[in-house]
Design goal:
The chain is α+β, with helices and mostly antiparallel strands. The chain contains seven helices and ten strands. The strands form three sheets. It has a four-stranded antiparallel beta sheet with strand order 1-6-7-5, with helices on one face. Helix 1 packs across helix 6 and helix 5 crosses helix 6. It binds a DNA duplex through loops.
DNA sequence: CATAGCTCCTGACCGC
DNA sequence: TGCGGTCAGGAGCTAT
């Protein structure tokens, strides 16, 4: 599933090419998570700006269509890939398939969201600080590569919670980008038991955890945003970009460090994988 | 306010 | 080979 590295790689793959394009039309497939929030025809003739990322969201700026008074105001589309979504920007797009639910047709090509499970979203807002975008973005935690995401910050944030550290990371309101897979891998890398209460983690261990989160995400980013497990299935990519998972999806298999069988437990209705020997409370 | 549980959806997988 | 059941999972929403 797309996590922060995949979303960032996706962004980089089309931002420069679509920047400066002009919208010619919009095609909608089945409903996504929320309604678009604007009449599709009101997007026509708007200029597209450079795409930015916040957490796992992408922001696609759309300028004003100056010749129409009613569309004098700029805005943009907030995009999310859910867990099965992918974006492609192609000069010549085929006819939409059964899982193609949003096409932004421009004079340079078509930006298409393909999303079988439809947990993804495309939502109009006047800006990232207004409307639906503001609502969705306002609860997000720090970007993992920001300087402000550091050991003391993480320690203070975890102190305010009593949930298991894995769930605190998954919440996304402390730091964004550590989804289920990368949260498991980062905790393994930091040697921390995922069941540990978040407020019981010492300052030094928070420093280690912060570094582990960055390292894990950075590694995936450098490898082209390979989701550890089913990236190939979901996107048809060749296996050479597969990042080796140390614990995720490896229940029963030997820990890569100490050979102890990897354990699978359920936290907050989702799977957690960890090494009961390497990862301490 | 913090936390726990529910929900959306469909492809993959499993046992028969 | 086909079929029904089960599961995964991002993240907002609702209930407690």
């Amino acid at each position: 599933m797309p996590e922060l590295p995949e979303v960032e790689v996706t962004r980089q793959s089309f931002s420069e090419r679509i920047d400066g394009a002009v919208v010619r039309g919009v095609r909608l497939g089945k409903p996504l998570r929320w309604p678009l929030g604007i009449e599709p025809t009101r997007l026509v003739d708007r200029p597209v700006g450079a795409v930015t990322r916040r957490g796992k969201y992408l922001w696609l700026p759309l300028g004003a269509a100056n010749h129409r008074a009613s569309d004098a105001d700029a805005g943009g589309l907030l995009l999310h890939l859910g867990m099965s979504g992918s974006l492609a920007f192609n000069v010549a797009a085929d006819a939409p398939g059964a899982h193609d639910h949003f096409d932004l047709v421009t004079d340079r090509g078509t930006l298409r969201l393909t999303d079988p499970r439809r947990f993804g979203a495309v939502v109009w807002s006047a800006s990232q600080d207004e409307g639906m975008a503001a609502k969705l973005l306002s609860t997000l935690g720090l970007e993992p590569f920001d300087d402000s995401f550091n050991g003391p910050y993480l320690h203070a944030a975890l102190k305010r919670r009593r949930v298991a550290v894995k769930l605190a990371l998954l919440g996304g309101d402390i730091v964004v980008g550590a989804g289920n897979i990368y949260a498991c891998e980062a905790l393994f890398s930091a040697g921390i038991d995922p069941r540990t209460r978040s407020d019981r983690i010492s300052r030094p261990r928070c420093e280690r955890l912060m570094q582990a989160i960055r390292r894990t995400l950075q590694e995936a980013l450098a490898l082209g945003g390979s989701t550890l497990r089913d990236f190939r299935d979901a996107h048809g990519m060749a296996g050479q970009f597969q990042l080796q998972a140390h614990v995720y999806g490896r229940a029963g298999g030997p820990c890569h460090v100490c050979a102890t069988p990897v354990r699978r437990i359920v936290q907050g209705q989702r799977s957690t994988f960890f090494c009961p020997s390497c990862q301490k409370r």
